[in-house]
Specification:
Layout: H1 11-20, E1 27-36, H2 38-45, H3 47-65, E2 70-75, E3 78-85, H4 88-103, E4 107-109, E5 112-114, E6 117-125, H5 133-149, E7 154-157, H6 160-181, E8 185-194, E9 200-210, E10 216-217, H7 223-229, H8 232-247, E11 254-258, H9 261-265, H10 269-280, E12 287-291, H11 293-298, H12 300-312, E13 316-322, H13 329-335, E14 339-342, H14 344-350, H15 354-369, E15 373-377, H16 382-391, E16 395-397, E17 405-406, H17 426-429, H18 432-435
Helix pairs in contact: 2-3, 3-4, 8-10, 10-12, 14-15
Domain EAL: 169-418
InterPro entries: Biofilm_reg_signaling (IPR052155), EAL_dom (IPR001633), EAL_sf (IPR035919), GGDEF_dom (IPR000160), Nucleotide_cyclase (IPR029787), Rev_trsase/Diguanyl_cyclase (IPR043128)
Protein name: EAL domain-containing protein
């Protein structure tokens, strides 16, 4: 019952030990450990390096466990630690935190320094609550995913509400599947205007869910669940296809569609995008795909390959929400963006914060040096519009000029310069959270 690569006890051994080594009066605690970034190691350096990383992590686990606990390799990049005794849970948590400290340092493999992280879930049983080893491991697995959602490189104890959250996710996933089948999704379009002429030069598609009860749900409420359950690929393709069909007859203006991190990690996405362009006849050079920095950091190897294919179609790539992350010049050059969209927070606060204003100006200068256009999003006042126009932004997007609107209302605005007089009324504020929200799909 030993794993051949790591020489650690395997999954079968964990279940056996839970039965044979635990006394009725003992607390049994289990940690489930999932390595973060291991797939990238395999993609970048090959499986022979990945195998060596597994061996190094196994040695690290033996070191932190000592004689108090037993490490296991469950398969792939999943490990576990089991421990029984009066204070098993407390001691095991300390062991896991020690492991995370060690993993915060790079691992030497051949002539490389490999960075790897971990997300850890913890679960325990007591004489009053004695689930079998399979249930205990399931609880640890649920807690591990809570650690991943919480930002990784952390450990989380299982709580009963995690299961309730899973039930809610399952329920919404079922509703989203029905929504896709029953045509409950809607797209609205928010125009972008040229900073000089104030003519509409592009529209951004924004996804909405109109439930059977008439309630309109913004993407922030359901896209994360669609990403987690895998449904985002089907929803995202629907958004792309429908947006291309809607915008086909809108002259030469560009269409901007948000692509989620999960879509970009799907190696089939570029092929599906090419099929949609062929099916709809939409000119590839009029299509902008908006992606966030997070989408690229999560799996940069797959992302770069996908973006190379996408650019080969003639499609433009836009970095969205710029100013909220840590993108460097090297990062921007690596992914060769066509445009930066300055995040709303940078625009809104620049007038009162000199350091943010300097950041905005330097971001625009950097974009110019890299031959990128710049859009300021979330512009709500004339003062903000004057600021970003003077700073050199090419396009402006925001409530000052246009709110999001159905496809049927776009054409009447295409030939008329925006006046900037669409001031924020009290009624506007009631829908602000959805009109300024990114589609992320």
């Amino acid at each position: 019952m030993t794993d051949s690569l790591s020489a650690l006890p395997n999954r079968r051994a964990l279940h056996h030990h839970a039965i044979t080594r635990t006394k009725d009066s003992d607390e049994l605690a289990v940690a489930l450990i999932d390595l973060d970034g291991f797939k990238i190691v395999n993609d970048l350096y090959g499986h022979h390096v990945g195998d060596q990383v597994i061996k190094e992590v196994a040695a690290m686990l033996r070191s932190v466990c000592g004689k108090d606990a037993v490490p296991y390799r469950l398969g792939g990049d999943e490990f576990a630690i089991g421990m029984a005794g009066p204070l098993a849970g407390t001691i095991l948590e300390g062991i896991c935190r020690n492991l995370l400290d060690k993993l915060s340092q790079t691992i030497p493999v051949q002539d490389r320094r490999i960075g790897i992280g971990a997300s850890i879930g913890l679960a325990r049983s007591s004489p009053a609550d004695r689930p079998n080893s399979s249930e205990l491991l399931r609880r640890a697995d649920v807690a591990m995913y809570a650690s991943k959602r919480g930002g990784k490189m952390r450990c989380s104890w299982f709580r009963p509400e995690f299961d309730r959250n899973l039930e809610a996710i399952r329920d919404m996933n079922n509703e989203l599947r029905d929504a896709l089948l029953n045509n409950e999704f809607r797209i609205q379009y928010q125009p972008l205007v040229d900073a000089a002429s104030r003519q509409i030069v592009a529209v951004e598609s924004l996804l909405r869910w109109e439930r059977p009860d008439g309630k309109i749900i913004g993407p922030g409420a359901f896209v994360p669940i669609a990403e987690e359950t895998g449904l985002i690929n089907a929803i995202g393709l629907w958004v792309l296809r429908q947006s291309c069909q809607d915008a086909l007859g809108w002259g030469k203006i560009k269409l901007s569609v948000n692509i989620s991190a999960a879509q970009l990690r799907n190696p089939e996405f570029p092929i599906q995008l090419g099929q949609i362009i062929d099916e709809t006849g939409f000119p590839a050079e009029r299509l902008d795909l908006e992606i966030t920095e997070t989408s690229l950091i999560l799996d940069p190897v797959v992302a770069e390959r996908s973006l190379d294919i996408i650019r080969g179609f003639g499609v433009n790539v836009v970095l969205d929400d710029f100013g909220t992350g840590y993108a460097s010049i090297g990062f921007l050059r690596q992914f060769r963006f066509n445009k930066l969209k300055l995040d709303r927070s940078l625009i809104v606060n620049s007038a009162a914060d000199e350091s943010l204003r300097a950041m905005m100006l330097s971001s625009i200068s950097m974009a110019r040096a890299l031959n990128m256009d710049v859009t300021a999003e979330g512009v709500e006042t004339q003062a903000q519009a004057d600021l970003v126009r003077a700073a050199g932004c090419d396009q402006i997007q925001g409530w000052l000029y246009f709110k999001a609107m159905p496809a049927k209302d776009i054409e009447q605005h295409l030939s008329v310069p925006a006046t900037g007089t669409d001031l924020l009324s009290a009624s506007s504020h009631t829908v602000k959270s959805t009109d300024q929200e990114s589609a992320a799909a």
